[in-house]
Amino acid sequence: MNSHIHARDSIRWLQNYFKSLKAWIGEVDGILGDSGWLPFESNRVSTALGNGYQDNTEWVLNWITRHYYLPGSNQTLFIYLPLATRKAKDEVDVFTYFMCCEHQEPPPEEGIPGYARDWSLGAPVIDFLRNLEPSVAFDTDQDTRTKAFQKVVRLRVMKVPMIELGQDQESARAAVAEAWPKVMLP
User: Fold this and answer.
1) Which residues form the domain of 57?
2) What rounded mean pLDDT belongs to the chain?
3) Using CA atoms, how far apart are residues 125 and 87, in angstroms rounded to an integer?
4) How far apart are the first and last CA of the chain?
5) Model pTM greater than 0.85?
6) How many structural domains compose the chain?
7) Distance from the CA of 51 to the CA of which of 58, 69, 131, 171 falls in 20 to 30 A?
8) Which residues fall within 8 angstroms of residue 28, CB to CB, at 6 or more apart?
């Protein structure tokens, strides 16, 4: 068999896998939507998916990233679901990340043309969380916060082991519904 047939089969497998991820995103959107939270961009699942041929790792979605806002609130919420993390040794080392950001002012009610672009680098936050206890919310230090965001006043983060999200939509929905309020800032 030639490599094009293998590639085609792999892409079709990914398309089916992404179909299940779409259902997961729908569950998360539903949970947050029930509490009035809205995704900044309803069709966006990534903060860094490239189309240049220089770095082929940018062609593949490694993380699902959703960014939400609550109208009238100065807080936003990021949820990261890893798909192909490089540093995890096994499933126990794979986490979903929740981040609540407090901004100086609420996002504009008419949408976010440039508002959500405050995000700089995810690595400082992931590094901050790496050695912390799972399923416990932590306020980040100023150094971590300013490396990750340009204009965020406060940042609370938490990691939840992916294995706790279960194998079906109902268990994932229950785990996310329990987790995201823990990371919210008072």
Assistant:
1) 3-183
2) 79
3) 15
4) 58
5) no
6) 1
7) 69
8) 66, 79, 176
